[in-house]
């Protein structure tokens, strides 16, 4: 499933960079598109604002078919305090913008599966695919608005996985 | 060289897309789809004359062909099978109300409502499917946001009328000069009026206007319960699998067989609101054609285009 998870993240990262190049994060000394995988970074005392944080949750497999189908539940968490120019009064609008961006980068609902063990990544034979997102209600914590969306990501296991 | 391949289980698909093309009723000529050369067509831009109806839901195919066994011997045992009848039905729900989806969802004639007092204006021959050229004076009578219908003046003809999409069958002549614009499928929304040109927001279903046609503003659409006309279309339904495979169902001749009927789909979960989406229900009877390949009579084709590198 690791290739599928990596491919999913890279697809979302590339789509976000194309959709809104200004949504970035300074991470480990490099400016990157504003989306990261929580379990591939150092633990955060508080999740960064105005970026998408990809979090992997449940795992399942269907082995009764020609190729094993694996599934992993993905939660994408994002929050914002709005911008300083408006004293945070635009945090609702900023969250709406992130809602729209997330919905946009999740489409199309599939991406080619790549193997990231080598550079450049090698194309595999199948597609990683996922379902429509289910958005949670927004949560207000002082001046910060947070929301998450859950997506079930699927992949067929290929030879060598 | 070794082929890279994988075993793929049953296709996983999200939704079904629908495409329809008009059957030439006078010539009894359906539109045949050949999945060999055409199967990988751009799903957003189907090849002419197929019209994209977008995504549909609750797509159900039901075969009604019947077979029986010929028994022989004592005691009797099946010797052969024979096909007693062939038939099929298709039902689905359209997710949008348009001229075409309304017309497909009723087993009756579908009409345009001429706007009150709307005059007709001659269309110049340099018009295209999405740009209607008039005289400057006539164009001033139209405005952006209007819906227009484009067809000839009615001049007493009978039989199948409406071109290139037959919209009605007349057994006797009428006196209504606007009749063809009432039943035409060449309708569109005016996006912009500049000088003598009406720019349409979408291309006309029948393509570029024929010479001598007129344009007239319409207010909306209407269908009736009853009547004797059954429209006929060629149908194409595509399921796109997540691995890139395609399942294509082609019905060369489909006639709507159910009266106009709608379903209400609540927008929110039960008990969380009263808003409902009104969805058009459609049900079709498949009619037979003779397959030019081997002269067999058939009602539909199911094609499968496997995913790249998938074992078959």
CATH architecture of chain A: 2-Layer Sandwich
Shape of chain A: globular
* Total helical segments of chain B: 4
Strand-and-helix sequence of chain A, N→C?
HEEEEEHEEEEE
Mean pLDDT metric of chain A: 94
In CATH's first tier, which class of chain A applies?
Alpha Beta
Compute the number of strand runs of chain B.
21
Total tally of structural domains of chain B: 2
Number of helices of chain A: 2
Oligomer: heterodimer
**Strand content bin of chain A:** 35-45%
Output the structural class of chain A.
Answer: alpha+beta
Rg of chain A, Å, rounded: 17 Å
Mean pLDDT of chain B: 94
Notes on the protein architecture:
The complex is a heterodimer of chains A (161) and B (312). Chain A is an alpha+beta fold and 161 residues long. Chain A has one domain: STM4215-like (2-Layer Sandwich), CATH 3.30.2000. Helix content of chain A is 20%, strand content 42%. Chain A contains 2 helices and 10 strands. In chain A, strands 3, 4, 5, 6, 7, 8, 9 and 10 form an 8-stranded mixed sheet that branches. In chain A, strands 1-2 form a two-stranded antiparallel ribbon. In chain A, strand 4 and strand 5 form a beta hairpin. The longest helix of chain A is centred in the first third of the chain and has 18 residues, at 2-19. Chain A is globular, with a radius of gyration of 17 Å. Chain A starts with a helix and ends in a 5-residue tail after the last strand. With 312 residues, chain B is mainly beta. Chain B folds into 2 domains: 13-66 and 83-107 and 230-305; 111-221, no CATH class. Helices cover 6% and strands 44% of the residues of chain B. Chain B is built from 4 helices and 21 strands. Chain B has helices spanning 35-38, 99-104, 136-139, 179-183; strands spanning 13-22, 51-63, 66-72, 77-85, 88-94, 110-114, 120-122, 131-133, 147-151, 159-161, 168-170, 187-194, 197-200, 214-223, 233-241, 246-256, 261-266, 276-286, 289-290, 297-298, 301-305. In chain B, the strands form 5 sheets. In chain B, strands 6, 7, 8, 9, 12, 13 and 14 form a 7-stranded antiparallel sheet that branches. Chain B has a 6-stranded antiparallel beta barrel with strand order 1-2-5-18-16-15. Chain B is globular. The model of chain B has no long low-confidence stretch (mean pLDDT 94). Classes of the chains: A alpha+beta (161), B mainly beta (312).
């Amino acid at each position: 499933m690791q290739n599928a998870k990596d491919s999913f993240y890279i697809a979302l990262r590339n789509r976000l960079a194309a959709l809104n190049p200004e949504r970035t994060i300074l991470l480990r000394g490099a400016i990157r598109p504003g989306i990261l995988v929580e379990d591939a970074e150092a633990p955060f005392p508080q999740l960064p604002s105005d970026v998408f944080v990809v979090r992997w949750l449940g795992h399942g497999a269907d082995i009764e078919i020609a190729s094993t189908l694996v599934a992993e539940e993905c939660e994408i968490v994002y929050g914002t305090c709005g911008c300083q120019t408006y004293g945070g009064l635009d945090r609702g609008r900023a969250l709406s913008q992130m809602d729209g961006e997330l919905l946009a980068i999740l489409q199309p609902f599939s991406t080619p599966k790549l193997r990231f063990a080598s550079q450049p990544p090698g194309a595999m034979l199948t597609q990683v695919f996922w379902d429509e997102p289910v958005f949670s209600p927004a949560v207000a914590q002082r001046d910060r608005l947070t929301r998450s969306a859950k997506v079930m990501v699927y992949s067929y296991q290929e030879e060598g996985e | 060289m070794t082929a890279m391949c994988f075993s793929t289980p049953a296709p996983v698909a999200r939704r079904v897309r629908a495409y329809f093309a008009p059957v030439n009723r006078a010539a009894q000529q359906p539109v045949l789809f050949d999945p060999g050369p055409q199967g990988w067509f751009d799903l957003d831009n189907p090849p002419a004359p197929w019209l994209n109806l977008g995504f549909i839901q609750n797509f159900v195919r039901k075969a009604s062909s019947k077979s029986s066994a010929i028994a022989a011997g004592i005691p009797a045992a099946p010797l052969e099978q024979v096909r007693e009848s062939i038939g099929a039905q298709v039902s689905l729900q359209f997710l949008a109300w348009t001229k075409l989806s309304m017309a497909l969802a009723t087993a009756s004639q579908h009409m345009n409502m001429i706007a009150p007092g709307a005059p007709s204006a001659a269309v110049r021959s340099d018009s295209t499917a999405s740009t209607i050229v008039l005289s400057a004076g006539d164009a001033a009578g139209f405005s952006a946001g209007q819906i227009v219908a484009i067809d000839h003046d009615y001049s007493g003809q009978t039989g199948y009328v409406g071109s290139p999409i037959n919209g009605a069958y007349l057994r006797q002549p009428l006196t209504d000069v606007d009749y063809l614009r009432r039943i035409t499928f060449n309708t569109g929304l005016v996006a912009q009026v500049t000088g003598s040109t009406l720019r349409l927001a979408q291309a006309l279903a029948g393509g570029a206007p024929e010479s001598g046609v007129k344009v007239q503003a319409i207010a909306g659409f209407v269908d009736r319960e009853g009547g004797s006309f059954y429209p006929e279309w060629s149908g194409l339904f595509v399921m796109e699998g997540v691995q890139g495979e395609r399942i294509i169902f082609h019905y060369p001749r489909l006639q709507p067989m159910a009266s106009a009927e709608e379903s209400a789909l609540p927008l929110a979960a039960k008990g969380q609101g009263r808003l409902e989406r009104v969805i058009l229900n459609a049900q079709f009877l498949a009619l037979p054609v003779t397959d030019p390949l081997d002269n067999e009579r058939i009602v539909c084709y199911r094609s499968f285009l496997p995913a790249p590198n998938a074992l078959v």
